[in-house]
Amino acid sequence: MTGKTRTILLAAAAFGGAAWLAYIDGVPAYVRQALASEEATQPVLMPPPPQVPVAEVVTRELAPSSEFTGVVAAARTVELRSRVGGTIETVSVPEGGLVDRGQLLFQIDPRAFEVALQNADAQLQRAEVLLSRAETDLDRSQRLLPSGAIASKTYDDDVSGKQERQAQVLEAKAARAAASLDLSYSRVIAPIAGRVDRVLVTEGNLVTGASGAAATLLTTIVSVDPVHVYFDIDESTYLSFLSQTRPEDVGRKGVSLPVEVGLASESGYPHSGTLDFLGNRLDPGTGTIRARAVLANPDGRLTPGLFARVKLATSAPKETVLIDDQAVGTDQGRRYVLVLGAGDMVEYRPVELGAMNAGLRVVKSGLNSGDTIIIKGLVRPGMRVAPKRIAMTPDRRSVDGVANGNSQEARR
């Protein structure tokens, strides 16, 4: 093979290899280069920001308050006992029902007391007759003394006799009054209006009349309207507010101490009253002082002995921020909320929380009027979000949702 022939074969082999490299997977090399150039110039697509529900904080005029636990108690409680002894003749107690003041509840056999009253009447009449005769004797002595027809001693005896008979009349009147009082005590009546308990002594039983606890207990009565709520106030609250404004100063200073009360089965504090008593010393064992609120109870729902939740206003009303409780997060014991900042960026905001009010949580510090917070969603500070504005109050959201659903149904 000549040198010229070898050169031609090598050139043909090189051309064939180049042609094979120009086609990979059936795509020409120049096409692949064009596609690679287009991919390099095309921008990378980012995912859209997450949509989260947001709401503007609610601002209301609220008085700062503290919450306590207490117990409902009757303003007046009576242990009904017999004041005279005898046999129970009739019982007219509506057990568990309401009674009026002066209503007859028990009747003790009155016959022995009627006899005693008749005897007292007779003794009084006898004393009055003796007094009348003593007055006649004294008149006679006064006429005869100047003429010397009687001795001075006789006159003095007649004066003393009249005074003695007058004392006997007074004694007989007192005995009659006592007998009349005993007869009235045979009718055991309700001393106050309220709700009566069960009957402890039934008809036919003998009761003992005496003073104090020795007398037979018949039943008990508690007043219904108004009622008291007793609760204990901690030392911090007392020092910060109540020590400067005691209940007895309310009328003179024009300051009211409102109290709101709720039962265990009630939401919020539907019952309103005022603080009317504050103890004179703190219990060193518990660090609390006893307080009492008075509440109107026209429907009788506040039964003595019930557990009560008490909210006591500690200062004048002021602008207060409220939020939905589900917007609050916890970070190592600290409470926080996520705030919608400039450019729809998420911001971390620590907050100090207070009590619930009408379904919303009071924020003592950390938020201002006009702030918009994220209600819920898996987002973190520094992220950009797509806010969806909703109402802060949960019940308003349900109303808005129903309205939107109705409008969509109408459009369909």
TrEMBL record:
<dbReference type="Pfam" id="PF25876">
    <property type="entry name" value="HH_MFP_RND"/>
</dbReference>
<dbReference type="Pfam" id="PF25967">
    <property type="entry name" value="RND-MFP_C"/>
</dbReference>
<dbReference type="Pfam" id="PF25917">
    <property type="entry name" value="BSH_RND"/>
</dbReference>
<feature type="coiled-coil region">
    <location>
        <begin position="117"/>
        <end position="144"/>
    </location>
</feature>
<feature type="domain" description="Multidrug resistance protein MdtA-like alpha-helical hairpin">
    <location>
        <begin position="117"/>
        <end position="186"/>
    </location>
</feature>
<feature type="region of interest" description="Disordered">
    <location>
        <begin position="393"/>
        <end position="412"/>
    </location>
</feature>
<feature type="domain" description="Multidrug resistance protein MdtA-like C-terminal permuted SH3">
    <location>
        <begin position="321"/>
        <end position="378"/>
    </location>
</feature>
<dbReference type="InterPro" id="IPR058624">
    <property type="entry name" value="MdtA-like_HH"/>
</dbReference>
<dbReference type="Pfam" id="PF25944">
    <property type="entry name" value="Beta-barrel_RND"/>
</dbReference>
<protein>
    <submittedName>
        <fullName>Efflux RND transporter periplasmic adaptor subunit</fullName>
    </submittedName>
</protein>
<dbReference type="InterPro" id="IPR006143">
    <property type="entry name" value="RND_pump_MFP"/>
</dbReference>
<feature type="domain" description="Multidrug resistance protein MdtA-like barrel-sandwich hybrid">
    <location>
        <begin position="76"/>
        <end position="214"/>
    </location>
</feature>
<dbReference type="InterPro" id="IPR058627">
    <property type="entry name" value="MdtA-like_C"/>
</dbReference>
<comment type="similarity">
    <text>Belongs to the membrane fusion protein (MFP) (TC 8.A.1) family.</text>
</comment>
<feature type="domain" description="Multidrug resistance protein MdtA-like beta-barrel">
    <location>
        <begin position="256"/>
        <end position="313"/>
    </location>
</feature>
<keyword id="KW-0175">Coiled coil</keyword>
<dbReference type="InterPro" id="IPR058625">
    <property type="entry name" value="MdtA-like_BSH"/>
</dbReference>
<dbReference type="InterPro" id="IPR058626">
    <property type="entry name" value="MdtA-like_b-barrel"/>
</dbReference>
